[in-house]
Amino acid sequence: MPVASNAECVEKLRDYLRTLKPEARAMLVAELERGVLRGDEAANDFVLQELRRAIRAAGQPVKRIGDAARLFFAPIEPFLVDDGADHGRIGRIARISLEPMWEWIRRDLMPAEAKALADDINRALLDDDQVKAELLTRALQERAVQRIRETVAKIGGDEKARRRLAVQVGTQRALDDLHTLTRILEVRDMLADLARRLPSQIRTFDRDPIDQVKAMLDAAAQHKPDIDPARKADILLFGLVLVMGRLTAPWQLVGIATRAAESDDAARVAETPYAVAVAIVLGEIECQVGELRAEIKAHRPVNSLLRNIHDAARTLRTEMDLSVESPWGRQLAAVRTEVSNLLKAEIESTPGRVRRLLRPRPLDDVGYGALDAIDVGDAETLIELVGACRTYASELAVNEVTMRTWSELQQYLETSTKVLLDALRHAGEDDRPFRQSQVDAAIRFCKAVLGADYAAVLAKAAEIAAQGGALERRSARA
Predict the structure, then answer these.
(1) CA gap 21, 110 in Å, rounded
(2) CA 384/CA 389 separation, integer angstroms
């Protein structure tokens, strides 16, 4: 009897876990996580990973038992981003920064207290005593906040000490991350209550929804008459981040700032506590520009990013009267300039990339094989980028270069395809794969530039040219 391989066993296990009912998955996850807390990590880790993967695929919410670190950072969850540690989003912490911060708390900040409380939390979780686990977690959070504040205060303006602390914490924005962490934990109860009262999704954010959300934010910020102004500002800041997460588009958040000021004048908006909403949106746009740069460098499609940046910039410019002299106006102008410079370089290079792939080549310059599929795909991505820029050209300040490049592509493709078809028709055994790959690439490019109908006609013409060439060669041999 044949013995199943490891891969077959793994696949059978995955199939079995996928067939479990949601209730069974939840019970199994809870039991396995208790096993991890007891130290049975090696035996349970793979099954847990596969279970969690099946749960995510099914969109099934499952309460996780977790451990002390997960409970400690639970209030931070709505403010985490999956960006690099050097991101610039206001009121956010990169998810990858949590582990280094936790290790620093356990190793350097308060090792004895952190270990004792973490052990107590894990024991409470093992006993399924959620109330005790939450009380212990709160105690751990409060002590950590106190110690972090004391540590940062001792450093003061000592730049050398600040750098040393940043190295110890081990994140690129160590001091900013610690500052954000303590500010969230200090107002976690108000934020949790606000999160419960906010709608899960705010589809439209016009006058009435804005007034309702603003009333919730004002009530949260003024829950105590003598609340510290800094904490009130933090409740508004992180409350606005919570609201942004419920909106259809992040830049809709600007509406609450203009509503609070009862004006679209940037100077009047800047005088209100809700001015931070504009800063949050501008920070989001700047991070999206960073993503755009990375995606362009990786030769990946950026249509959705372009649309988001375009819509965000247009919303800011239409919802607010941003003079070029205002700080926000200068910041937005700098963003548009950066986007324009990024796009211009790519747009201007597109015709040259297309010509290099489709240019007629003599037989001794063809060689064997076909065009490189990666080169063709990169050129097609560039063409799609230029096409997308046509839609957003004005707001992204690339109108002239986009129109000129698109016209150049149209003219080149309309005039070059006949030469490619003739080359395919007269191709021999050695160069036919290459000639065919050029025509195939031209069909893909034409579909993006000249439309699907034009590409379909070209594909039919290419089929006839290939068949005609084959008939001619057979006749010549006969």
Answers:
(1) 43
(2) 9
Q: Is residue 398 part of a domain?
A: yes
Using CA atoms, how far apart are residues 444 and 459, in angstroms rounded to an integer? Answer: 10
Q: Which residues, other chains included, contact 30 with Cβ-Cβ below 8 Å and sequence gap of 6+?
A: 63, 64, 65
Closest CA to 460 of 434, 429, 439, 474: 439
pLDDT tens digits, residue range 337-389? 999 999 999 999 999 999 999 998 888 777 667 899 999 999 999 999 999 99
**114 and 164 in a common domain:** yes
**21 and 147 part of one domain:** no
Instruction: List phi, psi (to 5°) of 93.
Output: -130, 135
Cβ contacts of 308 within 8 Å, gap of 6 or more: 249, 288
Query: Where does a domain end: 156, 185, 214?
Result: 185
pLDDT in tens, 244-258: 999 999 999 999 999
Domain region containing 20: 6-65
Residue range 310-330: mean pLDDT, rounded: 89
Same domain, residue pair 145 and 15: no
Residue 374 included in any domain: yes
Interval 61-74: pLDDT, tens:
544 445 788 889 98
State residue 346's pLDDT score.
Answer: 93
